[in-house]
Amino acid sequence: MAELSQQTLWMLAVRDKRDRQAFSAMFDHFAPRLKGMIMRSGIAAHQAEEIVQDVMLTVWRKASMFDPHRAQVSAWIYQIARNRQIDMVRKERRPEPEDLIEDPGAELDASQILALEQEATELKNALSRLSGEQREMIEKAYLGELTHQEISTQTGLPLGTIKSRIRLGLERLRHELKGIR
Amino acid sequence: MSAITHHTPDAMLAAYAAGSLPQPFALVVASHVSLCVHCRVALEAHHSAGGAVLETVDQVAVSGNLKAYLLARLDTPFTPQPVVKRSGIFPGPVMEAMKGRAPRWKALGAGVRQDILMASNAGSVRLLYIPAGQAVPDHSHGGLELTLVLQGSFTDETGAFGIGDLEVADEDLDHTPVAGPGEACICLAATDAPLRFNSLIPRLLQPLFRI
After folding, report:
1. Chain B contacts of A81, Cβ < 8 Å?
2. Which end of chain A has fewer surrounding CB within 10 Å, N or C?
3. How many domains does chain A have?
């Protein structure tokens, strides 16, 4: 599994071995990015750090929910960060979809994880290739600065290919999906 | 069971992922995603895009003692938020909004019932119970209305909606939803403005029933 990304290896070590060193490395990587993202919403540095702390604590506590077959680490942390920011700043709990839980006995499928990571890297590259203006619109959309009416349906990011990969990751949970269509 | 054919619009999923969707709509979207694999996949794709933004956003250094402080907190005991599970036709997010209880229906006349789950300046969400074959009074909207079918079905000028289908009706749509035959239609409906009914009597009753 040496070919998996550093981030995924850290997160799996945190999830499966409660590895504090790996968690510390993840903190070094994500904390400044989280703080940058949160401060973009006009939140002061002090409160942004409180949220960063809360997000990283949630990463530690909810590590068992991380499923690398359906989300790369940054996607999973992004989702936690948006939730925690809403909960803490607006003092309201954002409704969340039901969790899908992986069968604890299921083996890792390294090829699926790797393929999803590659799609995520493609997405990051596509973002960096966009013109300044397009890129700013996408940043604004995902940083919660645009209403849904303002977000055009064409975000300019090629989400189609990562969707087919995520769908494969979800199919591992098929037994969970019986009640769902 | 038929497949879901009316999905959450992509821009709305992106806004939900980013947290900019008003709370009443967020409840409907979270409920739809709980029922619909297609939209769950799309939502997770938006999380991936959000992850790409997180990876590339301008970084801001954190205070030197933040990590040590956090590491010291890792062993603090905590009680996880209880997860409210789906119950019967009601997906988890609806059960959570009802605080785990069964709906508390209030009669609106003609067999129609409602239970208001959330009402604020941001809009409202309610469960609607419409007997089979019954029409919901002709109404238009001051704003946007999202309707998710949880049981039975309804049809209106725009099409047919079955379990799991989500209708997005904007202020230009003047429609008369009619519940399908068979089971009563139970919907989760959210608006960001009060509904306006087009016939006189329901309009007079609106303040009374908050519909």
Report:
1. 54
2. N
3. 1
